[in-house]
Amino acid sequence: MKNINKILLGCILIVSTSGFAQEYKYGKVSKEELAEQSYPIDSTAHAAVLYEKKHIHMNYNQSQGFQLITEVHKRIKLYKKDGFDYATDEVFLYHKNSENEKIVSLKGVTYNLVDNKIVETKLKKDGIFKNEHSRYYDQTKFTMPSLQEGSVIEYKYKIISPFIYNMDRIYLQYEIPIKKLDVVVESPEYFIFKKFTSGYLPIDVKESNHNGKITLTSKTRSGTGGIGGGAVKSTFSTNGVDFKVIKNTINSTNVPAFKIEPFSGNIKNYISSISYELSSVNWPNRPVKYYSTTWEDVTKTIYKSGSFGEELKKKSYYEEDLKAVVSRSENQTTKMMKVFNYVKNRMRWNDAYAVGTSVGVKKAYKEKTGNSAEINLMLTSMLSSVGLDANPVLVSASNRVIAMFPTVDGFNYVISRVKLADGSHVYLDATDRYALPNVLPDRVIRGSGRVISKNGTSQRVDLRPRKSSLKRYSAQCQVDKDGVVKGKFNVRHMDYFAHDFRVDNGAKDDESKVKRFKKRFGLDEIEEYTVKGINETGKGVSESFNFISYDQVESIENEMYFSPLLFLRDKENVFKSNDREYPIDFGYGFTNTYMVNIKIPEGYEVAELPKSGGFKMPENIGAFSFRSNIANGMIQVVVNETVNVAFLPSEYYLTLKEFYSQVIEKENEQIVLKKI
After folding, report:
1. How far apart are alpha carbons 155 and 334 in whole angstroms?
2. Are 172 and 249 in contact, with CB atoms under 8 Å apart?
């Protein structure tokens, strides 16, 4: 009895002794489900979850202790080929030291209707793939076989975990609609949980309770054995632990698909979900024990770990090399840049996100490759060793869902911060070959961070760029009598635009870059394409070419009609929804400047020219200006479009939508040329 009490006190329990009521039985797919051509409530859906059940509970095994059990049963209808992606699923299994989660009883079936008969194809081993995902997670990925438009797929599995404190976030919505969803989470009365919900759908959690019991078997031996000692006998007895089980039930029907809007960021931050955090344990006749932690506790735990704080202390592996790179007599900025460029040029990121080292900084340095922690802890150590005030920054990168409560798993990336003598801060990420001081990759600026000092204390930091980035377009054009537009075009990418261009196009050939312009602007011919500055990190990137376009001008009798920005105009508003419940994430503020000069064709005069003007959004969120002029036989147009904020709350959505509606309207006003 004492042993079981100790186990209960030290664990987070999700306990269940009751069955899970099912309305959809595994293997019982109907012809009606297979014959259905579209989802009745949302005809645009390429796929729909017909049924999902998730049951999270706890089993006690006397030899292994408590185990967290997650049971999943899912049935999905695939209406169109675009929905086939939902026939692949993946499960991430945590492991630490000698303990690991495992997936068992995985099975699946694809159902098709052939000649009015249901044909079943089972998931086989060749459709299941197991990989090492990261230092602490393995991945089991499976793809259902024999997919056709109209298929129904069904699968089920069980996850057994010794990490009973580690319950994953439960998603209650997807990018496709859900017809029926049943979720049950159960815990004993002694354990008090905080529930955290996200998203914008109402979540109805019904709470009930029932009796639970764990039966323990003990063995007692009697007799001493040997001569005259009598036979050794074993007597078995049972002892029960009774408790009340708190049951949370969520039953949802006709859950709408989560609608992905432009500039959404990580949509998993906004999809409806629920998470559980153990707050306290209130065992009878014992003091209440509190388990909730703070971000300060989390960062201290990470800093003290051998794969983080201890790795920061190591210096011998680079000291001799670093002496040849930087001199202690140089100023702070010079030393910082030399160390940063040295690490950036020597090391290659292996695409692994991590807050702890995998192979260690010494081995990573030798092999010239490492994860985000190895590279940037190495960078931080080197910066400190040359006398700079450098500290690591824990980051929840853009691919990590924002943690609803303080947890070590809330972070998955590391960068470095230097505090200069003037009090300014410089953020550095040596995993990015195109990075600059305070120019960080998209995966970082869209995330959140906490800088950790040497005593383990931390402070939240905003990694969004303060300065807006600039992109400048210019076109020198002439229109012939047939309405064909010819000219020279240039675009200059600055700041984050230049960084993103290098990331997206640095390894591509010129032909690929040209195709991108043809697709975006609908240009018919592009010649003499050149790009400058792509390898000069820190400077802008310029692209230039000659072009011909046959459909920018509409000719009606003796008049020509065209937009003052020609192919550079925005043809439609990307913000189409009538409302929006989650924020708009641009990544960084920006200004797009357009300068277009159009030579008036011989024998024509300007009959109509859009008037100069402009408008603004409130609170300095953004502005638009339009200037037009005629001089020396040229139509001159200058347009500035600015959004000063990187991240905009949803309450500003209608303001932003109206702003861009006005932009579209102004850019699509017509210049009219009349034949003299």
Report:
1. 58
2. no
Tell me, what amino acid is at 658? E
Amino acid code (one letter) for 227: I
Q: Contact at 8 Å (CB) between 191 and 290?
A: no
Do residues 221 and 234 make contact, with C-beta atoms less than 8 angstroms apart? Answer: yes
Task: Tell me the C-alpha distance between 436 and 337, whole Å.
Answer: 9
In the block, which residue shows the tokens 């019982």?
28
Q: To the nearest 10°, the Cα dihedral for 374, 379, 382, 386? A: -170
Cβ atoms of residues 382 and 311 within 8 Å: no
The pLDDT, as a whole number, for residue 221 is 61
Q: 3-state DSSP: the chain helix, strand, coil percent, rounded to 5?
A: 20, 40, 40
Paired strand residues for 653: none
Length of the chain in terms of residues written = 676
Q: Give me the mean pLDDT over the 400-422 stretch.
A: 91
pLDDT above 50 (res 64): yes
Radius of gyration of the chain (CA): 32
- Quickly list H helices, 242-391: 295-304, 309-313, 319-323, 332-346, 361-367, 372-385
Distance between CA atoms of residues 173 and 443, nearest Å: 24
* Residue 114 CB-density burial (10 A; 0-12 exposed, 13-18 middle, 19+ buried): exposed
- Amino acid at residue number 628: S
- 563 to 75, 159, 569: CA distances (angstroms): 51, 60, 7
Tens digit of pLDDT for each residue in 7-30?
343 333 333 333 334 469 999 999
For residue 82, the 8-state DSSP code is G
Which run of H or of E encompasses 63?
A: none
With a CB cutoff of 8 Å and minimum separation 6, the contacts of 424 are: none
Mean pLDDT across 511-536: 93
* Rounded-to-integer distance, Cα 236 and Cα 240, Å: 14
227's tokens: 């001569």
- Asked if 615 and 624 count as a contact pair (C-beta separation under 8 A), the reply is yes
Strand 448-452 and strand 458-461: pairing?
antiparallel
Rounded to whole angstroms, the Cα distance separating 79 from 151 reads 7
Beta-strand pair 448-452/102-114: unpaired
Classify residue 439 by its DSSP letter.
Answer: B
Residue 492: C-alpha distances to residues 290, 454, 541, 644 (Å):
57, 42, 6, 19
Q: Classify burial at 559, counting beta carbons within 10 Å of its beta carbon; exposed 0-12, middle 13-18, buried 19 or more.
A: middle
Mean pLDDT of the chain: 90
What are 53's strand-pairing partners?
Answer: 73, 182
Least confident of 58-72, 144-158, 211-225, 332-346: 211-225
> What are 225-281's pLDDT values in tens digits?
555 555 556 665 666 778 888 899 999 999 999 999 999 999 999 999 999 888 888
The average pLDDT across 118-125 equals 96
Residue 268 Cα distances to 171, 262, 273, angstroms: 9, 15, 9
- Residue 164's closest CA among 3, 11, 280, 9? 11
* C-alpha span between 424 and 232 (Å, rounded): 78
The DSSP secondary-structure symbol of 436 reads B
Q: Which of 622, 664, 658, 660 is nearest to 642 (CA)?
A: 622
Band (pLDDT 50/70/90 cuts) for residue 132 is confident
Model pLDDT for residues 186-232, shown as the tens digit of each residue: 888 887 888 999 999 999 999 999 998 877 666 556 555 555 555 55
275-289, 422-436, 564-578, range with the lowest pLDDT? 275-289
The two structure tokens encoding residue 101? 């989660």
